[in-house]
Amino acid sequence: MSKVIITIARQYGSGGKTVGKMLAKELDIPYYDREIIAMAAEESGVNPTLFQDEFKHHGLRALLSGGYKGSRILSPESAGFTSDDNLFNYQAKIIRSLAEEGSCIIIGRCADHILKDMDGVVRVFVHAPEDFCLREAMKVNSLPENEVKKLIAKTDDYRARYYKYYTGQEWKNALNYDLSLDSSRLGFDGTVEAIKAYIEVRKRFDEKMKDE
């Protein structure tokens, strides 16, 4: 692989974002998360707050309407220019552009599906048991434990429905990813090392296939 694009989907509290940042630092490649919203907003001229995000819930009504229908970006004069679907398409365009530019790490936003046919993509799903996710989430939330439990369940449920709507696939299905890693068994450092080891094996395999 001349370049590597690592997409990381993650359960809330599993440390997927932490792993992504650590990996980006070790590999010395760019890391993109909410920066994608800023880039899409700048390109489209739409206020960033209007973009469909994993924590916005007004779009759930759309998830019950039959699902995502296409990827064509509408023009500013179109009635649906600021619709969730059109704004998702802007994000998808940015994600593809970033991947074409070079090696990088992209967090969430269905990037694994958007880039599934691109060479050099490594699709990762980071997960962990409920007690681990709760413990990690409690470190960054000042809410009572029962409220954090609700937040974890609500966030993961939304991510699953968001993914289903825009990809037609199940978010937790291991077949959608190259690696599905339990961060509670490996730790964050170990999860980073596992991803790096996979990349090295992939590179050797790709070279072998080229020589045959």
TrEMBL record:
This is Cytidylate kinase-like family protein. SUPFAM superfamilies: P-loop containing nucleoside triphosphate hydrolases. InterPro entries: P-loop_NTPase (IPR027417). It comes from Candidatus Eisenbergiella pullistercoris. Pfam families: Cytidylate_kin2 (PF13189). Keywords: Kinase, Transferase. One of its GO terms (molecular function) is kinase activity.
